[in-house]
Design brief:
The chain has about 180 residues and is mainly beta.
Length: about 180
Amino acid sequence: MAEWSCTPFRGKIIDAGMKNVTEKDELTLEIDEYVPLFAYIGSNKSSNLYLRFVSKTTLVELGISELSGLLESINLIQISGLRIRDFPVTDLEVVNELPQFDLSLWRNKKTVDIDAEATASIADNTFFLIFNEIEIAQKIWQYDSLQLAFGNARLCWIAIQNLSDGQIAKIEKSILDNASGGFL
């Protein structure tokens, strides 16, 4: 397992053939009975690189663009359960763009696994994936209704906001139906 660090960074993108970062792509959510949540940006549903959070009860994949280092997708494959609770988010600096990961740290790997337990939570019309309840978030990267909070070079949580009651119910049912250990 890799060292527990996934610091996003902001810098110039050198590849001129790459799509301009400022172009706004739509955030699409897919929810079904087997995979509780799949969120992707734009029309490309698959990524070349994956940052995976893995434990006995958790598998969450962040798809990263090999060209730009930008987040492309979030795939919640397995999680052990769900908590319904308030999740207080304090005033933090918000960067209104996708996080861009420093791929030089990946050493040409296609997949980086991080040993990390995640929990899922629902508060109001927001779904949270919480990776680190001890680490205090310092900055939020926001793109449309998607937020990723980082603190001390670690992903603290992911939030998807403005979900409908139907979407929340589907996510909740899928997680609870698969929480018995699933396929991990």
